[in-house]
Amino acid sequence: MTSLIFNKKIINTITIIVLVVFVSISSSCYNDAEELLYPQAACDTSNVTYNRIVLPILSSNCLSCHGGNTPSSSIRLDDYLSLKTYVDNGRLWGSVSHAASYSPMPKNATKLSTCNLRKIKIWIDSGAPNN
Question: What is the dihedral sign for C-alpha 50, 55, 57, 61?
């Protein structure tokens, strides 16, 4: 009888230890995007220009719909002068940042990364130069 009680205590102790270890391991494991963990290191905003930074972001995310001869909703973003119109009236930033009362862009796709949004905002805040 004493042996049975001793074995139950050992089993209970082992079970508790296993549970504690499992909870500790499972709660400490996560996978965050690098830009969320290290926003300054992962996002280089030191030299944001239209041609080097903004245009490639637009090419990758916007121009398949808003470029060419028949742009979606007649919103053309593939040339600087047309784009500048949407920058100046606030529609570019409102849409890409998913601000209230703007159509969130890219349509039916995930929002641009925080880093890309930061780069676009820096460019807009500097006057959206054609550089």
Answer: positive
Token pair belonging to 57: 């972001």
SS percent in the chain: helix, strand, coil, step 5: 60, 0, 40
Q: How far apart are CA 75 and CA 77, in angstroms?
A: 6
CA distance 63 to 51: 14
CA nearest neighbour of 105 among 43, 116, 84 = 116
Cβ atoms of 82 and 76 closer than 8 Å = yes
Give the number of residues written for the chain. Answer: 131
With vertex at residue 70, the alpha carbon angle to CA 123 and CA 115, rounded to the nearest 5 degrees, is 25
Distance CA(87)–CA(124), nearest Å, equals 7
**Residue 46: both structure tokens together:** 């030191």
pLDDT in tens, the chain (131 residues): 556 565 777 777 787 777 665 656 655 545 555 555 555 557 999 999 999 999 999 999 999 999 999 999 999 999 999 999 999 999 999 999 999 999 999 999 999 999 999 999 999 999 999 99
